[in-house]
């Protein structure tokens, strides 16, 4: 004979309560006295009962208790990105009280994210596009078509999803005005990936037109609305090493070297500074370097990066609140969080 599996009814009988009371004791959602709950748990331990089948419970409720967070790259890279880590931390913190769990859905070395086929059978109650949110991501249509509520962080902006973003244009415009006020006239830009396809190098008009991410588009537009057309070099990922590679292209020709480089993230800015100093340039005497995000930059020692500060952890918490409201049956308004310019020691007037 097979091994006998303990049941909730057996636990209830051992504890001297009804099956419904035993169920409430496990769920923690009903008016059960502490002594009664402890008696039920003691009986379950004695019988080796581990609790209600979570799959059966989710089927009864019509909910899995799982929120899927879409990561547009390998987890290895996401966990090296302080912005992604802080965002996910804030999201997990906000989902804890309602009792939801966070499932990370990432890409791998061959893909920029999970495919619709991979997530088709995943029982998620809601989806958060946490670090990708491309305008043409097929997963968006997949989840919307399934009736799964979606929160898009930083885009895309479309009527069938809830958008949480920051003032990317306003923050970059403030950064550009700061450089213009210092006297810079020909800055260059190191962009975040315009698409997650591994491409790096100069971003021509065709590549810019194919940009999948609203934050990249808005940050670049703000700079060009201040200075006119600028040279832009695309990084393949948000990593220090990518900022280093992009800067080498911009600094290769001393005659055409920019007086300032605007990096679309702080990690890329650190890489730019690393490449510039390796080439014998002084920051900010010979080259101004600015970033975007407001993360800690221990690689710079006691220097502080001139950057645009965004509320990253709060961004995650607000995302969690929006998800909770969607699961409660209400459609919250889109949210745009403010940013602010922080002037540090990496920007100065250009050398005469």
Alpha-carbon distance between the termini?
90 Å
Order of the strands making up the biggest sheet: 2-1-3-4-5-12
Query: What is the CATH C level class of the largest domain, in words?
Result: Alpha Beta
Biggest β-sheet, characterized?
6 strands, parallel
Question: If you compute it from the alpha carbons, what radius of gyration comes out, rounded to the nearest whole angstrom?
Answer: 25 Å
Element string (H = helix, E = strand): HHHHEHHEHEHEEHEEHHEHEHEEHEE
Total strand segments: 13
What do we call the CATH topology of the largest domain?
Rossmann fold
* Architecture per CATH nomenclature, i.e. the level-2 architecture of the largest domain: 3-Layer(aba) Sandwich
Strand content: 5-15%
Structural class: alpha/beta
Mean pLDDT reading: 87
Which residues form runs of ≥5 with pLDDT under 50? 54-62
Instruction: State the domain count.
Output: 3
The CATH superfamily of the largest domain is: Response regulator
Helical residues, percent: 40-55%
Number of helices: 14
The geometry reads as elongated
């Amino acid at each position: 004979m097979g091994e006998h599996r303990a049941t909730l009814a057996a636990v209830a009988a051992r504890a001297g309560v009804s099956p419904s009371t035993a169920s409430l004791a496990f769920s923690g959602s009903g008016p059960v006295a502490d002594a009664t709950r402890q008696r039920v748990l003691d009986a379950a331990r004695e019988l080796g009962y581990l609790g209600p089948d979570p799959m059966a419970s989710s089927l009864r409720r019509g909910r899995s208790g799982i929120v899927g967070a879409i990561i547009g790259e390998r987890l290895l890279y996401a966990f090296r990105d302080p912005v992604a880590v802080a965002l996910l931390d804030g999201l997990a913190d906000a989902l804890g009280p309602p009792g939801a769990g966070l499932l990370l859905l990432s890409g791998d070395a061959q893909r920029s994210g999970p495919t619709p086929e991979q997530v088709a059978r995943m029982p998620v109650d809601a989806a958060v596009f946490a670090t990708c949110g491309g305008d043409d991501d097929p997963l968006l249509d997949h989840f919307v078509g399934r009736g799964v509520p979606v929160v898009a962080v930083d885009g895309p902006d479309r009527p069938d999803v809830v958008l949480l973003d920051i003032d990317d244009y306003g923050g970059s415009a403030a950064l550009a005005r700061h450089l213009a006020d210092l006297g810079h006239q020909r800055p260059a830009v190191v962009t975040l990936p315009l698409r997650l396809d591994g491409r790096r190098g100069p971003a021509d008009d065709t590549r810019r037109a194919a940009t999948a991410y609203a934050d990249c588009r808005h940050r670049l537009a703000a700079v060009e609305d201040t200075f006119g057309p600028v040279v832009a070099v695309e990084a393949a990922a948000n990593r220090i090493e990518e900022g280093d590679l992009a800067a080498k292209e911009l600094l290769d020709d001393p005659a055409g070297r920019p007086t300032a480089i605007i990096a679309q993230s702080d990690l890329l800015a650190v890489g730019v500074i690393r490449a510039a100093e390796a080439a014998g340039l002084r920051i900010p005497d010979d080259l101004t370097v600015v970033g975007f995000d407001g993360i800690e930059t221990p690689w710079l020692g006691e220097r502080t990066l001139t950057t645009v500060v965004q509320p990253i952890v709060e961004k995650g918490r607000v995302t969690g609140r929006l998800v909770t409201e969607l699961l409660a049956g209400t459609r919250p308004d889109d949210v745009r969080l403010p940013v602010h310019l922080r002037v540090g020691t990496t920007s100065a007037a250009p050398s005469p």
